[in-house]
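Continued from yesterday's entry.
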Amino acid sequence: MVTFFRWLVRLTVGLILLGVALVVLVWYFAIRSLPDYDASYRIAGISGPVEIIRTTEDVPHIFGGSDRDVFFALGLAHAQDRLFQMTVLRRAAQGRLAEIYGPGALPADGLARRMGLYRNARASLGAQEPGVIEALEAYAEGVNAWVEQVNLGARGRGAPEFFLYPDEIAYWEPADSLAILKLLAASATVQMRREVLRARLSMVAPERGQELVSAPGEPAMPGYATLFPGAQLAAPERGEGNPAWTETLAGFLAPALGASANGFAVSAERTAAGGALLANDPQFALTAPGLWYLTRIELSSGGVIGGTIPGIPAILSGRNSQLAWGITPAQIDDQDLFVEEVQPGDANRYRGPEGWTEFATRRETLRVRDGSELTITLRETENGPILPGVHLGLSAILPAGHVAALAWTGSAPDDRSMTALIGLMRARDRQTAAQALSQMVAPALLVTLADDGGVAQVLAGRLPERAADHQTAGRMPAPGWLARNRWQGTVPAPASLSRMSPQGGTVAATGAIADAGPGYDGDSRYRLDRLRYLIDSREIHSRDSFIAAQNDIVSPVARALLPLVGADLWFTDEPAARGTPERLRQDALALLANWDGAMSEHLPEPMIYAAWMRALQDRLVRDQLGPLADDLDQLYPGFIERVFRGTDGASAWCDIRQSAPVETCMQIARQALDAALLELSGRFGPDLASWRWGDLHYARQVHPALGDMRVISYVVNLLQPVSGGESTVARAGFLGYDRNPWLSTRGAAYRGVYDLADPDSSVFIVSTGQSGHPLSRHYDDMADLWRRGEYVGMSLDPALARAAATGITRLEPAGED
């Protein structure tokens, strides 16, 4: 027995030592991939010495003897810090995520292949200007140079994720950067998702369903079923459901994910320091690492500083010594879905304007990690590629024997958007910037500009041309065999939708464009109105007032809806006894009556308001939409406002059709509030004063590859309570479904405020940190600053960059002594 015990102790000690050795080994190989920022390399591909000066926040300042060398070093710096992210973004655009993630990524791969993101990117390479092609080639060589250094120096495969997701890192190609820009464009627009929702609403609630998503004054759409007389349409009575958020973000970006931004500027005469001010905060899905990366590069045209996306060799939002710019995804209808009829008995033909026509087809193979290869047939019509019914809920709206084709401006093989973005960096004033942006195709952008002469707002990108008698004006899927529904081509955005020297010297953008066609979504006007109020309420602005506006957390939707929804509820009942539902309602209404709409994480009022509006919208639509109501993952404030104002009889939504009595909007509002308070009190107790918005509303910045792994997720994911909401200027968009629908999953992953009076006082921030390495101190060192609405400074002065240097990477041409 004593011998057995001794051997048991020895075995236990041995297992412990083995476990410790294994942890040390894993740790050693993981930290091997941390780059040394204070090192020198001899590298082929550059014509002279290059310096990458890293500041305290790990921001690279890149200096070289030629533009080509600078773009080379930018590629190397991106790869040093974000190599795994770059390769995943490339895979997402190529439709090759399943090779590392397994079968769960096949739907995303199938959609990317069918949209032709990578194929169209390769086709558009030759359309770029020669100088842009040279920049893309130099950038690719810089990425590859770092991959070679990783291999030569056994630097832990370049990123620790590669140990868990085995991947042979293919060399970077110029078309890879174009493909990531295509993926960004596909992710920014949500038009095809909206078309599917409109069709489903029309089928489930033919009489009033469109009111949920219509903008004020928008022409009524025909009933979707009437577009296909005699066709067999399955009633979409079951909700399509929503995928897990981490699955959606497997590639950091995904088509139809959605993006937004605020961009605003005032001219010099409206500022205290006598120079124009501009602020910008592109809003995408929050990930760890974040999508954005701060950079400063010195080109022959001068220094440029701001935010980049790893994989794209352009500063998308930033400034040079004379011009500042910011981007806002434009809400234009740049996508149309067409319903194509397949010839009965011959799946290779579809109906066209001239009769039955052959699909253009090709076959591609999807490789799957730990699985068999899958060969898919890609079909295309004259309207665009065919999308199977498994994508975006298309199966719920397709008549039997029909398929859906997608027309998108981003499919253009002559897309010169990269040329436009690199030209924007070199522009010296608003006029040359607008000229460069005239080459933009996709994504469509509202670009805010500022220079010493004033400010401007330019709509850049192509718009589809539709016939005046188009059956749905592009708002819903339409029969693809009718010539009247087909695109007549695409055209650059008209100059009439841009403003070069606006009256009053101010511009503001949230993406809403009232005159750009049917893509305009009137609900976003709440945020735009609030932004304009913040700008117009002061005659003279400073950098600090712009920072305050960019971080404004007052909800214009709460201010608009609460007086309407609660009009007949404020202080109308006799005081109720403590502990009763009636008293809980009265206390909640008393709090809301004195609330200014600030969505502070420390207050209970935002929690009560958000839960009330969500319960209210669900009660208004549930009886008519049924399970389709489960798929509404956002609040439609314009709809609620029209209902409670009774616009065009919209108050009919308040009556529950299945009940005998005729319910009033006041009754529905009270019932919704009671239901919301019951749910919240069950989770947080009956003391309303102790509730905090931050207990429900926190930003979860998830690592797309490691975020679902039980132990590792605590290291790589970032979880922070945040203020703001869906409609605040400091936008913190909700998930909209699941156990906590108020989880903040979208926000301003990059913020910048640019002061042309004192350019070096301009400030910047990203949502996580510069490094994508979970063990780096720069992985999340900006997260707390970002959450608090704080910034870091970045200067174009080389001396200041060197003074703040924490490391200098020196690149020397190979072969020199």
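--- second protein ---
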Amino acid sequence: MELLLQAHVLVASNADVLKDLQGQDTFDVKYATYLLNGNGELVIQDVLQQLNQKIDLCNVSNAKELVDLTRSFLQTYFKQDSTSSLYFAIALLQTFTQNNYTGPFIETDFFNLFYNVSNEGSVKYQNLLIQSLTILGQPAYEILANAECLVISLLMFEILTDSVTLFNSSENENEIQLPEIQPGTNGLVAIANWWRSRALLAHLSVIPEPSGNQPSVAAGIMSSIELAHSIVNDLPTEVNECFRKQIYSIYYLENVKTSLAINTEHLCLPSLTKVKKLTDFKFVLTGARARRTKFQETSHSGLIILAESSSRDGSSNDATESDNPENFELESDLLLEKPIFDSIGSEPLDEQIIKRQKIDPESEVDNGIDEDRILPMAIRQEYIPKSLQDLNPNEQPGLDNLDVIQLLLRVYVIRQTSPARDPLVEEELSAIVSRIIYQRGHANWTLFLRSLWERSILETNKAKTVERGLLQMQSLVEELGLKIQTRMIPQNSDEINDSSATRLKYIHQLPFMPRWELDANLAEKYMSLGVLRSAVEIYDRLHMWCEAALCYAAVGDEKQADEILSKRLQDFPDDARAYSILGDIRQDPTLWERSWTVGKYVNAKNSLARYYYRPPKDSGLAKDYDIVLGHLNDSLRQYPLSFDTWYFYGCVALESNKLNVASEAFSRCVSLDDTHSMAWSNLSASYIQQDKLKEAYSCLKRAVGFDSQKNWRIWENFMIVSFRLNEWNDVLTACKQLVSIKRDKQGEGSVDMPVVEKLVELLICTEYTDDKLDYFQRNCIEFVCVTLPSLITTNDRLWKLVAKVELWRKRPWAALDCHEKAYRVTLHNPAVDTEETAWNDTVDACEDLVAAYESLGEREGKYGEGSLVCKDWKYKARSTIKALVSKGKGRWDGTDGWERLMEARSQL
């Protein structure tokens, strides 16, 4: 019973599921009902009322003492195995979340419920609680609401999971052990760990950048499916399969959220794929014709997401149109509110055929859709699943809320893994967001708000929609109903939806976006549009002094930025981030050192590394690899999940010939992002220099598999290592790819002659059978006999290689044609008239052609029995020599080449 109640609270079921139990007079049912109704504050008040104890703060002077005293109090009065303790910890986290992320704001004075202190001293101690949330020099947002709820919640979860505290973790960094959820873990323990990961992500969201041990611990908890297994296996047998599936779905969604929060977004795809199969969610990105303006008569191609849920859970209808945030109209005399699509498949047949010719057959999969993509794509109409083809693109059905979350998470993954402001990427994201906003019915309040927010972010990048985008962003910030000092958009107090349960329902499956972060994003948009004053006003209102300084620095006013940070450091001398940013502005290493001393701020060490890697000219310093590696090592010891730092660390180690260090660094890079082609390539480079060719070959195989940018250096290394290991199929593949990449700029210079000669040698030493060619033979013939002739302009050696292959293929007429082209290439060299070397090369080519006429001329020709390759081969041979004699007469008489030419003529 206890586990089942906790499981319902974990997945935020509707409170109706407990209606049969509400008559039972147990605190478990009462607390679970409170939480499912979004009334976490009632749980806190009830528990503290029963406890009837407060924490006395008379002798507390700093944040560490305050946290230690609070932990000691909690350990005394709350039992580790008590379910009421778990409800209490959850209620604290939910209350903090509501007052900082979702609204509406709860006016209860929670600080005075916990602590015994005078009204005059409460502000001081509340500031100490906020200071206690600092992670490696990064202070928490200084005016967040109810820091006491988050701090006590984190401490409670540490007690409930019997974990080493992460507060002041820089003092006990060697004691931190990452949690591992083992098979057979008690279900309630698993739930406590799950909630702890949620609390840790909330903690990370109140600091500027993920840092410290918190990301590793959160990732450790969410990395194993045993977390969900432990809960599901301990549920009563009568629990239906649908609820069990819901737990697994929530787990995979939060696994993705965790990866996004700690900047390991490249690990998200497996979980997204699994939850998509688990919920049987069908969606695809495809093209359809649409009209976008009021004056278009002809539809034009556009992107659209076709999506349909297999079922809708009972909570999917928990929001009505009046409950949801206001969707601002696009007040435009030109643009339609939304595109009007033609029915799928109405594109003219001849245009579909034209598109079909452009498809790369090697990229196709069995059903035409690559499911292992962040955004599965149907590039042909027949590839769209039948159920989706039947949808009306202008009025698609409502989606299950978990499926809406999947789409939103894919938006975040695509954004974090794609180039900024890429037009095609923004079109894809717009298609996803539009699918959510314009569906029949309405999604949950939080999901709809987030969709409107993402649409606004995209719209502020376009001149025609920027007005609606900014207005919508401002409106959404204000509609949260949290503490806000000014309003731009008038709103009646009764317009705010007070259903806290609806707002909290899916907050833990989406990346946390506190209200001040939304405000800061709005300020960034103002700044990008040149509205500097409005941006700075927002930062000032939010007390985000570092961001205000960065804002001034970005527009070149470094003096004003310096003044803001200097004042900040006078008031808060322990703000390590401010020291580091001021160091970046002044390029002063002493400030970065100070930042590291004050708070172990990792970006300070990264800045020091970059400074000593490329010292300013006026510094009098020389590049020092040992110092650079030392600073980067310090940074990585504090925050080992930084891909960029590991990558820089590896590059410096490779440059300084510290190959073992480079191998370790790039190994960590590919463990964080196994799709990064350059990391794989650099790892292979370190192995090559250690003469570990097999390891290098494996790395390069991965590198070329993810090389979407077609980097010729990666392919060249792959070709060289494959050549040395006699992996001839891969050598041929790399050689073809290099030609494809370089041909537009280098032409025949893109061909690696020694490699192609070796490939031809391997090919012609095998037996040719027209009906039984293996993979290597078939591809090598296509490359040599089709690709190379389209490139050759001045290289006679290439024509001779083609001739060898044509002769091996028993096509002597084609071989003779290649010899003729090789001779013409040499003959037309302008240097023949001025350089004896070029003249001798031409004589050599002439001799080769005459020999080809002699050996091939009388063979069976192209048209079978009775035909010859060259019936008048003797006449052509004499004519060739005669023409060359005429060209060289008077210039090259008496030279070695001339004598050989005379000898060849006499033999004919």
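Confidence is low (pLDDT under 50) at residues 353-366. The longest strand covers residues 282-293. Will compare against the first tomorrow.
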